[in-house]
Amino acid sequence: MRNFDFSPLYRTSIGFDRLANIMDTVTRADSGGSSYPPYNIEKTGDDSYRISIAVAGFTEDELNIEARDGQLVISGKKADPEDDVQYLHRGIANRAFEKRFQLADHVRATDATTQNGLLHVDLVREVPEALKPRRIEIASSAPQQVTVEA
Hints:
The protein contains 2 helices and 7 strands; from the N terminus they run ααβββββββ. By secondary structure, the chain is of the alpha+beta class. The chain folds into 2 domains: 1-33; 35-126, Sandwich (Immunoglobulin-like), CATH 2.60.40.790. A hairpin with a 2-residue loop joins strand 3 (63-68) and strand 4 (71-76). The radius of gyration is 25 Å and the shape is elongated.
């Protein structure tokens, strides 16, 4: 895959650095990102979404969810393994992970639950009233007729 250099965007544009950061992050994530653990992103309503991550073997205490700088960071770190266990085959991956999701403006995490080995993080987009589209009435500029009574 090709690697694109977005540094010229930083030098030649003003006010678009967030867009350049997003493009830079996306290309970096695709170039060597891990697919562990697998996840789904669902649209559950007009302005609501859900991220589901397979976290079988992790407890709630071993998982961490943070929202910072327009990103949702989900990480998991397994507690120290038991030394007295002797495996004949070890196929269940219990390694540490960190997943980053770039959030759009006005999207925030509202709830997180675990169920059947899946971590569900619910997101909602709440656009402030000041930024929602509003209809502006058009006033007529035609001169009004004045009726003179005798």
